[in-house]
Amino acid sequence: MRRWLGKAEVVLGNHSDRLNAINIFPVADGDTGTNLYLTVRAAVAAVGGTAPETSETSNDVGAVLSRAGQAAMEQARGNSGTLFAVFLSAAAEPLAGKSRLSAPLLAAALNRAQIRAWSALSEPVAGTMLSVLEAAAKAAQATDASQNGDDSNHALGLALDAVVEAAVQAVVRTEGELAQLQAARVVDAGGVGMLLVLDCLRSAVLGEELQDELLEGLHGYKLQDPHIHEQMPADDGVEVMCTIDLSPLNAAILRQRLDEMGDSVIMSQVGAAAGNDDDDDDSVVEKSYRWRVHVHVADPGPAVALIRSLGDPTDIAVSELALPRDPGQLSTGQVSAGQGSPGQEDLPPHEY
């Protein structure tokens, strides 16, 4: 898991500029590559060896991935980063207590992740990284079924090959599934990012090289032209993100109200229930859960006020959709593990 996430950090850093260049959905703000990179980097930092290990968790695949997912969720950036964090956190659940990955566990993890990712969005859309993750999950399940639940390394290799191939085909299909992508003749940036992440998993598990040829023929991806989104009208409004403890009822209220105020609403739980675990208190005090909240709105004021009326949010961040969040910081230059790179503290331009 650590080797996988480390590879993903390097690869997303190296590809961030081209991912940004074709980022036109849900808004053409040219930051998908940056958001994915910064979110994965937060996950890597959480499991990079500084966290204390115990005998119970040192060989627990799910525990390592859960810690990475929670860190990613707390520091997620944008639609793509938030959905990637959801993917990590959900995939960790079927792996809890397991010391190695297998084809059946891979199928269970990807299925849990795709279900959770689709449900995190108030209005999920096909032709995005959601479709790529769904295709990967179905391929893993089909391969596992054909192998009759074989948990050998050979079966895992077959499953990972099938997952990456299905992800490639799903990325190709995104262009025809969204009118905006079809008009611009590009594939979905978040979908390509998810493909890269899945190929990193295959590479890390099998000890094989990344498959650069996967990107050949993807419309718009290899072009050296200026960013496609720069020719499109600027999107008005802002992106608001925060983390907040809410009861299930207040979480439902917040999602409904944010749906009325704006769009691209994503709400996903971070970790387990917060507060007192004493069963005697459950009948009196409703448990609260930590949530990562993301929304695009015309004016941040009402959204921030609504969020504050329901709880005490942390890490409230507001970014203008019309501008890339950190233009020029991530370029076509290569990124190596451990190399200096833009810090999360530099983003976004407005903090509340």
Give the topology, please.
Layout: H1 2-21, H2 32-46, H3 61-74, H4 78-92, H5 103-120, H6 129-146, H7 153-177, H8 179-184, H9 189-206, E1 238-246, H10 248-261, E2 263-274, E3 288-297, H11 300-310, E4 314-320, E5 350-351
Antiparallel strand pairs: 1-3, 1-4, 2-3, 4-5
Record field, number of beta strands: 5
Q: Give unreliable regions as ranges.
A: 50-56, 276-284, 324-352
Instruction: Characterize the largest beta sheet: strand count, sense, and whether it forms a barrel.
Output: 5 strands, antiparallel
> How many separate helices?
11
End-to-end distance, in Å?
34 Å
What is the spatial order of strands in the main beta sheet?
Answer: 2-3-1-4-5
Which series of helices and strands comes N to C? HHHHHHHHHEHEEHEE
Mean pLDDT: 82
Proportion of helical residues: 40-55%
User: Class by helix and strand content?
Assistant: alpha+beta
Query: What coarse outline follows from CA principal-axis ratios?
Result: globular
Strand % is 5-15%
Rg from Cα: 20 Å
List keywords for this structure.
single chain; 352 residues; alpha+beta; 11% strand; globular; disordered C terminus
Explain the overall architecture.
By secondary structure, the chain is an alpha+beta fold. The chain is globular, with a radius of gyration of 20 Å. It contains eleven helices and five strands, in the order H-H-H-H-H-H-H-H-H-E-H-E-E-H-E-E. The chain has helices at 2-21, 32-46, 61-74, 78-92, 103-120, 129-146, 153-177, 179-184, 189-206, 248-261, 300-310; strands spanning 238-246, 263-274, 288-297, 314-320, 350-351.
